[in-house]
Specification:
The structure holds two protein chains of two kinds. Chain A is mainly α. Helix content of chain A is 75%, strand content 0%. In chain B, the strands form five sheets. Chain B has a four-stranded antiparallel beta sheet. A four-stranded antiparallel beta sheet of chain B has the order 2-3-4-5, with no helix packed on it. In chain B, helix 7 runs antiparallel to helix 11 (444-466) and helix 8 (171-195) packs antiparallel against helix 9 (201-225). The longest helix of chain B is centred in the N-terminal third of the chain and has 29 residues, at 13-41. Classes of the chains: A mainly alpha, B alpha+beta.
């Protein structure tokens, strides 16, 4: 069984588990299913790393598996922080994202080359890509939390405050990883490889846009108005921008990061 | 002091008093206005606006090409739109004043926000934590260093075949070349306006000025080209492969020599001067020489003519063929198909070009060389004694795959001798060619220091938030 097929099966199982837990009123255990799915995904990544000698994030195929695992991991962490009170939209959404990525990997994405092309032969590569994916997975989960807050009007004040705390923690954790990994380590690597730390490549620009959108969220969130939902809207936008940075840029725009496609 | 007293005594006391009140009022008004300006510049509202504007602008910019070619303007954007776009430099969106204004506001906001946080006792009153201060300070340092680097840094590129060398010029050369490209684009725009009768008198004056300026710039560049700083030789270039056959790495061995003032590489003659630098370059591993940093960004193969002739061959002028052996030309037959003592060209009655001899004197001798590769198609080419390297120059332009010829000597036919032509044969070879990015200047250390501070501040803040301390 290929890694893509296995990820697809994991996605189906985790999503089914989320639906079953939701229907049976055991929402507080949702994070356990997500954590298990994430563990299986990361185990696949580790096996492939051991087989090829490099972190398998250099093509779309394994990148999607890594992202699916990270998304489930981030959602599990958020659910754990919530003490199992995480909104169904977030838990179901994270499982759905993992299922979609597994489905796309299984049926549409070619497996790619098993070896590293010269441009990717750098010790900075694993940290740069892995940090970026972890950050982006956190943004997706934070956006799901934002969506969960937006779809309901009648939140109790303490519930809403707790959700926002979790959402902020996940978003900030992702922001830290994304800034240090995708932007700063990326700049460092670009300085070694291309002689310039920034080249206005579409992937770089969209990473900057993601950074800016998340920065807007953190600044809006500092106003501390509990009725203000602009922060959540911005996070949802951040999630969309993140997905475009991950896939849209590779599929629609050409640039120096095209080997990632 | 005395003068001041005399002057004060001339002002009536009542007026003096009212002036003081006015001054105090205007001072307060000024302070209020300044406070409002500073408040706005350091406000979260401005941060949000600037970040949103930057994100929106960048998103739009990625939809267009990095640098708009002139043909785009000529085809679609001529007139007011093209004029506005060029005036705002939107053809190069990240160097446009529009984007620079957004960046400027971002820097101002960051600066005022950080300073006001510092001024309010590490900002605790406003909920501004030291970790965030570190993060903002680092970002500010990074932006300042990046702006400084943007002003001082130059970039260029070299493409060098294995065994050949390329030159590095003084940094100003690269900056001027870039400037020239921009001015040429502006000139082309104005020329098109002029051609379409859309140019104003001001445009025509600007065009004249530009033409003159470009000539001066070209002269300056030519002057610098004659005085390179370093000669970089690609001694060899090679690929490394995985056991399965995929390319693992591209590498090249480089040697850099300092060039003497007249453009001759020191140390290329007998008992040459020591090298400035020698070492391997590969993707992700740059090569440093005299403040320049070279980066390997491309590797491919090209068919080039060697610098020295591969062999010599003498052909009789009576049409007899000579067979060449060795050097990858085994079995190729060469012969002289036609000899002209004074090569001339004219248009015939049917409109076709006709080649003929102008007279019996050997004033512009030429031979028509016939080449017959084994199993291949025969070809013919004219070789000229007066222009011996004509075929080589032609071959270099066309990246030929077959041999090229140089006329070394020609013996005209005489009694008892058919005459002969001695040719130098240049067999092209397929060699690796490396593309090298050239960079000089920038503000590296300061820039990385800023980024490190920013990462440290952000990580510190994140740990505190995740642990629930904030």
């Amino acid at each position: 069984m290929s890694a893509g097929s296995l990820m697809f099966v994991v996605g189906i199982l985790v999503f089914s588990a989320q639906v079953w837990l939701l229907l049976s009123g055991r929402r507080e255990r949702a994070w356990i299913a997500l954590a298990a799915g994430s563990a299986v995904g990361f185990a696949m990544v580790l096996v492939q790393w051991w087989r090829t000698g490099h972190l398998p994030v250099t093509n779309m195929y394994y990148s999607m598996i890594f992202l699916a695992s990270s998304t489930m991991g981030a959602a599990a962490w958020a659910g754990r922080m919530d003490g199992g009170r995480s909104p169904s939209v977030a838990a179901l959404g994270a499982a759905f994202v993992a299922l979609s990525l597994g489905w796309a990997t299984r049926f549409f994405v070619p497996r790619g080359m098993p070896f590293l092309v010269p441009a990717l032969q750098s010790p900075l590569m694993p940290a740069h890509v892995a940090f970026a994916f972890v950050g982006e997975a956190c943004f997706i989960v934070a956006a799901l939390y934002g969506a969960a807050i937006l779809v309901r009007e009648d939140w109790k004040a303490d519930e809403l405050a707790a959700l926002r705390r979790t959402m902020r923690k996940v978003a900030l954790f992702g922001f830290c990883f994304f800034t240090c990994g995708a932007l700063v380590l990326g700049m460092l690597w670009a300085a070694f490889a291309w002689g310039r730390y920034w080249g206005w490549d579409p992937k770089e620009v969209w990473s900057l846009i993601t950074f800016l959108v998340l920065a807007i969220y953190f600044h809006l969130e500092r106003r501390g108005d509990p009725r203000d939902r602009r922060g959540e809207w911005v996070l949802v936008l951040g999630g969309a921008v993140t997905l475009f940075t991950l896939f849209g840029v590779n599929l629609l725009l050409s640039g120096l990061h095209s080997y990632g496609g | 002091m005395g003068t001041g007293g005399a002057s004060a005594s001339r002002v009536p006391p009542c007026l003096e008093g009212s002036c003081g009140v006015e001054e105090r009022k205007s001072g307060e008004l000024f302070r209020k206005r300044m406070s409002a300006v500073v408040g706005f510049l350091s406000s979260l509202r401005l941060t949000v606006i600037v970040c949103a504007a930057a994100a929106f602008y960048c998103a739009l910019a990625t939809l267009g090409p990095d640098t708009w070619e002139w043909s785009t303007f000529e085809a679609f954007l001529i007139g007011v739109i093209g004029r506005t776009m060029l005036a705002l430099r939107l053809n190069s969106p990240y160097e446009s004043p529009v984007f620079l204004v957004i960046c400027g506001l971002f820097v101002l906001n960051l600066l005022f926000c950080t300073l006001s946080a510092l001024a309010s006792g590490s900002g605790r009153r406003r909920g501004f934590r030291p970790a965030l201060l570190l993060c903002h300070g680092g970002l500010l340092l990074f932006v300042v260093a990046a702006l400084y680097g943007w002003r001082t840094r130059v970039e260029g590129e070299l493409r060098i075949a294995a065994g050949e060398e390329g030159m590095l010029y003084e940094p100003r050369y690269y900056a001027l070349r870039r400037r020239m490209k921009e001015l040429e684009m502006r000139r082309d725009f104005l020329r098109t306006l002029s051609r379409r009768r859309m140019a104003s008198a001001g445009d025509r004056r600007e065009l004249e000025r530009l033409e003159r300026g470009l000539e001066t710039l070209k002269d300056a560049l030519e002057f610098m080209r004659r005085r390179p700083l370093y000669a970089v030789e690609v001694v060899k270039a090679w690929e490394e492969h995985y056991p399965g056959g995929g390319v693992k790495d591209w590498k090249a061995l480089l040697r850099a020599r300092r060039v003497a003032s007249k453009g001759v590489a020191e140390g290329t003659g007998a008992g040459g001067a020591p090298l400035v630098a020698e070492g391997e370059i590969e993707v992700n591993v740059p090569f440093e020489v005299g403040g320049f940093t070279l980066y390997l960004y491309s590797f491919d193969y090209s068919t080039v003519l060697p610098g020295r002739r591969t062999l010599e061959v003498t052909l009789p002028l009576n049409g007899s063929s000579v067979r060449i052996s060795g050097h990858g030309l085994d079995g190729m037959r060469l012969s002289v198909a036609r000899v002209l003592s004074d090569f001339r060209v004219r248009r015939g009655a049917d409109g076709k070009m006709e080649i003929y001899s102008g007279g019996g004197a050997w004033s512009n001798p030429a031979v028509l060389l016939k080449t017959e590769p084994p199993g291949g198609e025969a070809g013919e080419r004219w070789l000229f004694v007066e222009f011996p390297d004509h075929d080589l120059a032609h071959g270099d332009e066309k990246q030929v795959s077959g041999p090229c010829f140089e006329v070394l000597d020609l013996q005209p036919p005489s009694k008892g001798s058919p005459g002969c032509v001695r040719l130098g044969v240049y067999v092209p070879r397929r060699v690796p060619v490396v593309g090298l990015g050239v960079v000089h200047g920038g503000a590296g250390a300061l820039l990385w220091a800023g980024l490190m501070l920013m990462c440290a501040g952000l990580s510190w803040h994140t740990v505190r938030v995740v642990k629930g301390r904030e």
